[in-house]
Design brief:
Helices cover 43% and strands 16% of the residues. By secondary structure, the protein is of the alpha+beta class. It is extended and about 125 Å long.
């Protein structure tokens, strides 16, 4: 546990941390009204995405009947338009950015290819260790649902264990556990419901122009103990005060930023009432002797990460130059960690993805917002038809209450017996016919409603720029292969536009932070390169020497755009026609460089050693000699 003796390098003392806590609380309360509207809109979008907007008593009653096994009740239907379109858009972006290894490739000049390979190997190992693909997929989904996908990039150190062979005399040859620390870039998706930010700037410009950004999490006692053990002890203090601080609370109030916000989305699973108590942790578990502990632990804690741009003088420190700070706050009462970011980039490592950016900031509608009216209209037409079917089953009747009791005709049964109140009336058939009358059932517009619903669904595709083939469905129509490819190429233009926006507003600054962190913090070591299937030694000094020559690629900016493959093909053909080109340039080296950029990791498996190369040359020479024998001088007669 850290003490109150804090290093003055890149951190704040206890009094300055109190000022930072006051500043963070002020930032969290600045835009409470705007934050409340923002969270309410998020909740509305999630309910529409999960088709949970219908809370009418009739629908809930039918759903409960179905859940109890009564399949005869017809519940209202919500036509699935939003969810398939969003998932298709997420799948497209995942195919663009996340399917290659590593996610961020590295290219450089030929003389620096070794350093580029080291950099790429380190990034590939980090992406697997910390699950970049998983987090980025969630960020893509947030981006298309809310037009707001928040992420943070941190250099994270994780204690790990490996199994090695014991070399001691008594246990030589047996397995042993070795503990070590692993460090790498950690890309984390931030919950939009529990973040608070400077809403005076555009979301996509928050990392460069915003003043602050933070988010709340709920963690257990064990998680907090683990976190404290992983933090830099020279910048960590007040751990005991944090352990004993009162739980900040969990609420469904959308306008309060200093509690964990737990939205109610699924009406069949309300987690808002989950017990997050503040009792002593040991007493809650009933552990013997828990009352004798020197620290009064709580069950859960609200952990807040807070990034800001501020002057050191704002917190009582010396200096009036704007700096970037990172603080970790427990229960909004204790700052356990504070540091000034002394890094190679001049931005907050917090990024917000906006696939649709038109200059309106938070008012820009997402893909979900564009498709939601069509889902509502299509669902309404379907439910009109279902209501007609309900009438077919539960028909409308006119009855004489003097002759028939209402409770006898309400039950739905194919074999029901309906008694007459006046038995004497049964002798008169006309009177029995007057006791009850069924209104004729007509279903004139049901087919038209279904047709209109399908037309509205097609309008939703036009609004979002998708078609059925994008979602893996059959599309009617007679088209040749070329016409179909042209159609699909044009249909992807809207999604490619979103990819272009994501690349320049989100991926580019994120890659710069990842590159800078790797150059600053990457330790030396040996890492497995999955493409080459071999260990690659990583030398941080060699990486830093080539910093200005790296160009990090991803799915939107692949290696073949960094090195034009079509131009290389023309160059190789020219070299074959003009031998002077091959004399002046290393054609084989150019081809090998291009092949490695394209991922030809298997080239080394087929490389000949010097003996095999000499044997191959001898074979070629012998074959050429046998095919083209030397000219022989024919003997002339009489000579």
């Amino acid at each position: 546990m850290a003490t109150a003796n804090i290093s003055i390098i890149n951190t704040l003392n206890l009094e300055q941390r109190k000022a930072l806590l006051h500043y963070a609380r002020d930032c969290a309360e600045r835009g409470s009204t705007a934050l409340g509207d923002f969270r309410s809109l998020l909740r509305y979008r999630d309910r529409a995405y999960q088709r949970q907007l219908n809370v009418t008593a009739e629908h809930i009653k039918a759903v409960r009947a179905n859940m109890n096994g009564d399949a005869r009740k017809l519940q209202d239907i919500t036509v699935p338009i939003i969810m398939p379109q969003i998932e298709s858009a997420v799948a497209y972006q995942a195919g663009v950015y996340l399917t290659s290894y590593p996610i961020f490739g590295v290219v450089s000049y030929p003389q620096n290819q070794d350093a580029a390979l080291q950099f790429e190997t380190a990034l590939g190992d980090q992406s697997i260790k910390y699950g970049w693909a998983r987090e980025l997929t969630k960020i893509f989904r947030d981006g298309f649902k809310y037009n707001f996908g928040a992420a943070v990039v941190q250099w994270k150190k994780t204690p790990l264990r490996s199994i090695v062979t014991d070399t001691s005399i008594s246990t030589a040859g047996l397995a042993a556990i070795r503990e070590y620390s692993y460090g790498g870039n950690y890309i984390k998706r931030v919950d939009p419901y529990n973040c608070f930010m400077d809403m005076a700037v555009s979301p996509a410009d928050l990392h460069t122009d915003g003043e602050y950004f933070g988010w709340n999490e709920v963690i257990s006692r064990v998680q907090l103990k683990k976190l404290v053990s992983m933090l830099d002890p020279q910048k960590t203090t007040s751990a005991k005060e944090a352990y004993e601080s009162s739980f900040a609370g969990s609420t469904q109030d959308a306008s309060y930023a200093m509690q964990y916000h737990n939205p109610e989305i699924n009406q069949y699973l309300n987690l808002g009432s989950t017990h997050l108590g503040t009792n002593n942790w040991g007493q809650w578990l009933g552990l013997p002797g828990s009352n004798r502990t020197s620290i009064n632990y709580k069950d859960h804690y609200v952990l807040t990460h807070f990034y800001c741009r501020a002057l050191p003088s704002d917190f009582g420190a010396r200096g009036n130059k704007v700096k970037i700070y990172h603080a970790i706050i427990v229960n909004w009462s204790t700052v356990i960690f504070a540091e000034e970011l002394n890094v190679g980039y001049d931005c907050m490592p917090c990024f917000i993805m906006q696939p649709y950016e038109d200059g309106l900031g938070y008012q820009t509608q997402s893909m979900l917002d564009n498709a939601l009216p069509f889902q509502d209209m299509s669902s309404a037409l379907w439910n009109i038809s279902l209501e007609s079917k309900r009438r077919l089953i539960f028909d409308r009747l006119i009855y004489n209450p003097r002759l028939i009791d209402k409770k006898d005709i309400d039950p739905v049964s194919s074999v029901s017996r309906i008694p007459l109140r006046n038995a004497a009336m049964g002798k008169d058939a006309n009177m029995m016919g007057q006791a009850i009358y069924q209104i004729p059932y007509r279903e004139d517009n049901s087919g038209t409603n279904i047709q209109m619903s399908e037309m509205i669904s097609a309008m939703a595709d036009q609004a979002t720029g998708q078609n059925k083939v994008d979602r893996g469905q059959f599309q009617k129509g007679n088209k040749t292969k070329t016409e179909f490819e042209t159609t699909m190429m044009n249909s992807n233009s809207r999604q490619q536009l979103a990819s272009l926006m994501i690349e320049h507003q989100f991926m580019t600054p994120l890659k710069e932070v990842v590159k800078s962190n790797t150059l600053q913090y990457q330790p030396s070591g040996r890492y497995l390169n999955r493409d080459r299937r071999e260990e690659v030694p990583v030398d941080p000094v060699a990486l830093r020497q080539a910093i200005l020559e790296f160009k990090m690629t991803d799915g939107m900016l692949p290696a073949d755009k960094m090195l034009n493959s079509d131009l290389l093909t023309v160059f190789l053909q020219t070299a074959q026609a003009l031998p002077t080109v091959a004399t002046e340039y290393d054609i084989m080296g150019m081809f090998m460089y291009w092949a490695k950029l394209k991922g030809a990791y298997w080239l080394e498996d087929f490389k000949r050693n010097p003996e095999q190369q000499q044997q191959f040359l001898n074979t070629v020479q012998q074959t050429a000699a046998a095919t083209n024998p030397p000219d022989q001088v024919m003997a002339q007669p009489g000579v």
